[in-house]
Amino acid sequence: MVAEKQEAVLHIVGKARLQGHVPISGAKNSALALMAGALLSSEGCTIENLPCLMDVQRMEEILVSLGVKVQREAGRIHLDTTCLSSAQAPYELVSQMRASFFIIGPLLSRLGIAQIPLPGGCAIGARPVDLHVKGLQAMGAEVEISHGIVHASCPGGRLQGAKVYLDYPSVGATETIMMAATLAEGETVIQNAAQEPEVVDLANFCRTLGAKIYGAGSKTIVIVGVPQLHGGTYRVIPDRIEAGTYMIAGAITCSDITLGPVIPEHLGALIAKLREIGVQVTIETPTVIHVQGREGKYRGVEVETSPFPGFPTDMQAQLMALLTISEGNSVITETVFENRLQHVAELCRMGANIRTKGNVAIITGVESLSGAPVMATDLRASAALVLAGLAAEGETQLRGLHHLDRGYDRIEEKLRGLGATLYRV
């Protein structure tokens, strides 16, 4: 009889002081879009500073299924896209990861056809693909969704430049339309575009391969289509969400740490909130941030998530962990995803005092948290529970580690390097 495989559990022993420097990996959300964008090149390309993550591995498997030849070494990947042979992505891979849908734009633009199952990922809200679809249709694509699969084709053989207005500045839709437009005929203008650093990174990557993209990082992006893209080498930007998570790790444990490489402008909203709470944040060099927690009580604040340059939804859960031990009342309003307060129940198991109504959480600070068995419900919730465990009295046992492994490169190793006590069983 085969023994049933047991679920891994992360044991976190609280109250350890952290000290030292933590290295920040390449940005997950950029890396996945860049790997999809590589499909636009008729020669292939090399991507450097790639984080070691489950999602990156899945995207690699999707590209291989399309005929891409992959050479992987530590932190870099070479993608030979000359033999792109399939426009059909396998359901079992796409269903596990939201970002896999990014391949629809490049496939449609390069091959004139794409068949992509509707994507999966964290259960944090609807995140529909209608904005992606509307943008592609505006460029002349015929798109039909049947039996859970998006069928897209270009009747004229090549997408046509168009004006695309996004009802919401969706990062995914902005990136899909921008990639599709690089090989389209004529000029495409995206209005109300997402301004996130990851959009700028993708634009810079495409430009390295010969694309003509202007205005990325602003609300209006202009893309002038070219017949084809060549090869190139590109380095992924540092992960601002990983950096922010370690900044809060330093604050919640009243520790003194540095982290880098980072791009401080990408962390503006978080730095402002941490300083308002009472954390000392210093930009030591253009790529290194120093965080100094303090013994006295932190102050409660009000936060509302919004698209960049606002406070990122991907940092909401981690900040909430810090606010559970901050004096007075704090209010967090989640405006980006409708189902992103699932970590509240788990933080309350650790002694937090949080009430929710709709998309609003009211946090009343407590003296301290206590270790408890908890379950991660999504990627950023898993990080918040690790942070709470670092600050809590006693030991926390975290389950649902597949979420954590999707988005944090060697998190246990990095935290142990700072002096934290945690181990996986």
- As residue ranges, the low-confidence spans are 121-126
Discrete helix count: 14
The main β sheet shows up as: 4 strands, mixed
Instruction: Give the CA-based shape.
Output: elongated
Describe the structure.
This protein is α/β, with parallel strands linked by helices and 425 residues long. It folds into two domains: 10-24 and 238-424, Alpha-beta prism (UDP-n-acetylglucosamine1-carboxyvinyl-transferase, Chain), CATH 3.65.10; 28-235, Enolpyruvate transferase domain (UDP-n-acetylglucosamine1-carboxyvinyl-transferase, Chain, Alpha-beta prism), CATH 3.65.10. The chain is 31% helix and 25% strand. It has helices at 28-37, 54-65, 91-94, 104-111, 130-138, 171-182, 197-208, 240-252, 268-277, 316-323, 343-349, 379-391, 401-407, 411-417, and strands spanning 10-13, 19-23, 45-48, 69-73, 76-80, 113-117, 142-146, 149-153, 163-165, 187-191, 212-214, 220-224, 233-235, 256-260, 280-285, 288-292, 298-299, 302-304, 326-327, 329-333, 353-357, 360-364, 373-375, 395-399, 421-424. The chain has a four-stranded mixed β-sheet with strand order 23-24-1-25, covered by helices on one side. Strand 15 and strand 16 (288-292) form a beta hairpin. Helix 8 runs parallel beside helix 12 (379-391). It is elongated. The relative contact order is 0.15. The model is unreliable at 121-126 (pLDDT under 50).
Task: Supply the key terms.
UDP-n-acetylglucosamine1-carboxyvinyl-transferase, Chain; 425 residues; 4-stranded mixed sheet; alpha/beta; 25 strands
